[in-house]
Write a structure and sequence with these properties.
The complex is a heterodimer.
Chain A (H helix, E strand, L loop, with lengths): L1 E5 L3 H14 L4 E5 L2 H11 L5 E5 L1 E2 L2 E2 H10 L5 E6 L4 H9 L4 E4 L4 H24 L2 E6 L3 H14 L3 E6 L2 H9 L1 H4 L4 E5 L7 H11 L6 E5 L4 H9 L4 E4 L4 H38 L3 E5 L5 E4 L1 H7 L3 H4 L5 H5 L3 H14 L3 E9 L5 E8 L11 E7 L1 H72 L5 H28 L7 E3 L1 H11 L6 E7 L6 E3 L1 H18 L4 E10 L2 E8 L6 H6 L15 H11 L3 E7 L3 E9 L6
Parallel strand pairs in A: 1-2, 1-3, 3-6, 6-7, 8-9, 8-10, 10-11, 11-12, 19-21
Antiparallel strand pairs in A: 4-5, 13-14, 13-17, 15-16, 16-17, 18-20, 21-22, 22-24, 23-24
Helix pairs in contact in A: 1-5, 7-9, 16-17, 18-19, 19-21
Chain B lengths: L4 E5 L3 H13 L3 E5 L2 H10 L4 E5 L7 H11 L5 E5 L4 H9 L4 E4 L4 H14 L1
Parallel strand pairs in B: 1-2, 1-3, 3-4, 4-5
Helix pairs in contact in B: 2-3
Classes of the chains: A alpha/beta, B alpha/beta.
Chain lengths: 644, 122
């Protein structure tokens, strides 16, 4: 409180200041020694002062005139006047002039000073507030002089009270009955003796018909104590008895009635607001809980109950509540440890909570009670059930990983396919190249061949060596041609022209074509009812030729070639067996590979071509072999359909 | 025995020469041409009993030559030679009237046998 102390006697100033410094250190005191000084200060810093404490007797005037000036100029300060002993009359004058209080300079007035000043300021502020908001009274009284008296008194002593008068009970009903005018009044001042009906009846009626929420003050006559009690029972707020000087009590009675009603209204509003908030907290779709310093739950809202299955009864006040929700001790310890580091400030901390039914749900807890503490709650926080979301995230992760896996696989497969395609293309290009080269080589070979022929023809008498060497050239030309033929065969994209063929016919043809040395014996034995096969006859010829040549090559010293064919499971199986040197297991595994050869000449395409041809005709080829004993090539070819 | 007049057509001079020399040694009268056009010119100047021609030549192919020759002198046999043994070619050649399509390197004995047969048939 900032005080302006107006006192000319320095001794008093000293005493007062010392006292105030001691007992009310929160007061700050400025001193003025004269009225004028005080006025000047108020002029300059009037806004800053809360209260003016002035002595009555001042060198250049008196405290009263200062007071009048202050009130006249409506300066917003409380005023307390220090009066001398025996100055009761002055006291009244001072009060009437608008002082908020006076203090008599006697005994230990200084000790009482702080309290007096504070209550004076309080009262001043209350007055200010009151003046700001007038009290509107509806006065039901039939006697016009009573109305007049009351009005005049109020104008004088309680100008913030405005009075509107009506004269009969029906008037009251009319005025308060309609909705519009109900809010226009703060208090109903009801005289007991109204024409029309008596106040009690009126009260009853008012209660029934309207939602009368403005207070009613009943004015009773002397000796109407009964009436008063009954009126109170019927809902009147208060009553005032028309005795001498009752008018002086009227303002405060009216005010109290009003304030009491206001209080009730405010309380109701507060209660409603509290109810609303309570409902929200209780029922909002977010978990809300609160704990004390020992970790025992103090609050557990219905969403907590719904999600966890544990009721508030089971959790609140239960020192083992935490154990129910987090049964694993180690996890609990971790949580508490983490909680200590975080303090009461974290958001979206996901904790797995075990529900009553055993399910585990993930709750994202947020706790900001560090910044928003609530009395009696050591900590409080909210939680959101994110189980579904986490599950979805996990599913997404799994799916994503699976997807990645699938993508990886597909990519690998694609890569492989691409590589294969590239390989095939390369092969195709090589094939074309080989084809071109092969063909081109034939002409020079042909020329050499012709030249050798010519020489042989024209030099019959040339020496043995010459003929020998011509023979060598011829042989090599022949070999070169063979190689080219192999190359071309392998490179060629064969068009399979399938026909119905009898294997025996082909075999016959092939054997006839081959120059079989005497050291080779051929046995072939096909049954007469061997089914026809659907294949390209040229291919088959070539296949057999290759196999026979291969067999021959395996038996340089001679041996036996055996061919047999049987029908088996819808396919024809042909076996070509030789009694040659056989193959090692390693050799056997590579025998059909292109460019694999154990011979010093040839590029090793023969059997590779053979395999390609067999497969192009829908068949398979396998080989069995034993080193030193011989080999058997087995071909299966599809039987021509539509055969019985 | 009449000496047959044989025309050998091949864009490869060595090929043509070796064949011609062989036939010559065997008693035939052989001439060479190194292109289809040259062959036609030769044919208009001389009469040949047989024409042996390579198929793959720049400009006019052997097949085309065969066609033209057959238009002029259908009774004169034309034998085609090729390093490319595709059936398609054989078919085309035969379609144009070629008596045969041989694959290089030629079996000289086969060719001589053919010519002998031709001689005897006349």
């Amino acid at each position: 409180m900032k005080i302006l102390y107006v006192e000319d006697d320095p001794g008093n100033v000293e005493l007062t200041q010392r006292e105030l410094r001691r007992s009310a250190p929160h007061f700050s005191v400025d001193v003025a020694a004269t009225r004028q000084e005080a006025l000047d200060l108020l002029e300059q810093q009037g806004e800053e002062y809360d209260l003016v404490l002035t002595d009555l007797r001042l060198p250049d005037g008196d405290g009263l005139s200062l007071l009048k000036h202050i009130r006249g100029r409506a300066l917003p300060v409380a005023v307390v006047v220090i009066t001398g002993r025996g100055d009761e009359e002055t006291a009244v004058t001072v009060l009437k002039a608008g002082a908020n209080d006076y203090i008599v300079k006697r005994d230990d007035y200084l000790a009482r000073l702080p309290l007096t000043l504070e209550s004076a300021l309080h009262r001043y502020r209350a007055d200010v507030m009151r003046l700001a908001r007038p009290l509107r009274v509806l006065y039901a009284e039939h006697n016009p002089s009573d109305i007049d008296l009351t009005r005049r008194h109020l104008e004088r002593y309680a100008p913030y009270i405005t009075l509107e008068a009506i004269h009969t009970a029906p008037d009251v009903m009319a005025r308060l009955g309609s909705e519009g005018t109900l809010g226009a009044y703060d208090v109903l001042l009801l005289d007991y003796r109204l024409p029309g009906m008596n106040a009690l009846e009126l009260l009853k009626k008012l209660q029934q018909q309207t939602s009368l929420d403005i207070p009613v003050v009943l004015v009773t006559g002397q000796g109407d104590a009964d009436v008063a009690t009954q009126a109170l029972k019927l809902g009147a707020s208060d009553y005032i008895t028309k005795n001498t000087g009752y008018l002086y009590q009227l303002p405060s009675v009216l005010e109290n009635a009003y304030h009491r009603t206001q209080l009730v209204r405010e309380q109701e509003a507060l209660w409603e607001s509290e109810q609303r908030l309570r409902k929200i907290i209780e029922h909002m779709p977010v978990l809300l809980d609160a704990f004390d310093e020992k970790g025992v739950a103090l609050f557990w809202n219905s969403e907590c109950e719904r999600v966890t299955g544990y009721t508030a009864d089971e959790i609140v006040g239960n020192p083992h509540g935490m154990e129910l929700l987090v049964p694993d001790r180690r996890v609990r310890v971790d949580i508490l440890k983490h909680l200590q580091t975080l303090g009461n400030y974290y958001r979206d901390w996901e904790i797995d909570v075990t529900c009553k039914d055993g399910q585990v749900r993930t709750i994202a807890w947020s706790n900001i009670s560090r910044d928003y503490p609530i009395p009696n709650w050591q900590s409080w926080g909210i939680g959101v059930d994110v189980t579904a979301r986490k599950r979805a995230e996990a599913d997404l992760k799994t799916y994503s990983a699976h997807l990645e896996e699938m993508v990886r696989e597909r990519t690998a497969a694609l890569q492989e396919a691409q590589e294969q395609l590239v390989r095939q293309e390369k092969l195709a290009v090589l094939g074309q190249l080989a084809g071109g080269v092969g063909h081109e080589l034939r002409t020079p070979l042909a020329t050499i061949s012709n030249a050798v022929y010519y020489l042989n023809m024209t030099l019959p008498d040339a020496g043995q060596t010459t003929h020998e060497y011509l023979g060598i050239i011829e042989t090599e030309v022949h070999n070169s041609e063979r190689i080219i033929a192999e190359l071309l065969d392998f490179a060629r994209i064969d068009i399979v022209t399938t026909q119905t063929i009898h294997l025996s016919a082909i075999v016959e043809q092939v054997l006839k074509k081959q120059a079989l040395p005497d050291t080779i014996r051929v046995t072939w034995d096909f049954s007469q009812d061997l089914p026809s096969i659907a294949a390209d006859p040229r291919h088959l010829e070539q296949i057999l030729e290759d196999l026979v040549i291969n067999a021959l090559q395996a038996m340089p010293q001679g041996g036996e070639i055996r061919l047999d064919a049987t029908a088996h499971d819808g396919a024809l199986r042909l076996r070509v067996t030789d009694t040659g040197c056989g193959m090692s297991p390693e050799h056997r595994s590579k025998v059909f590979e292109p460019l694999f050869t154990t011979k010093t000449r040839g590029i090793g395409l023969g059997l590779a071509i053979c395999k390609k041809l067999v497969e192009a005709n829908g068949g398979t080829i396998l080989v069995e072999s034993r080193e030193g004993c011989g080999s058997t090539f087995m071909i299966t070819l599809p039987i021509k359909e539509s055969q019985a | 025995m009449r000496h047959l007049n044989v025309l050998i057509v091949d864009d490869d001079p060595m090929m043509a020469k070796t064949l011609a020399d062989i036939l010559q040694f065997k008693g035939y009268v052989s001439k060479t041409a190194h292109s289809g056009q040259e062959a036609l010119d030769n044919c208009s100047r001389n009469a040949f009993d047989c024409v042996i021609s390579d198929v793959k030549m720049p400009g006019m192919t052997g097949v085309e030559l065969c066609r033209r020759l057959k238009r002029r002198a259908p009774e004169v046999p034309v034998v085609l030679m090729t390093a490319y043994s595709e059936d398609e070619l054989v078919r085309k050649g035969r379609a144009e009237g070629a008596t045969d399509v041989l694959t290089k390197p030629i079996h000289i004995d086969d060719m001589l046998a053919f010519l002998r047969a031709l001689e005897e048939s006349d």
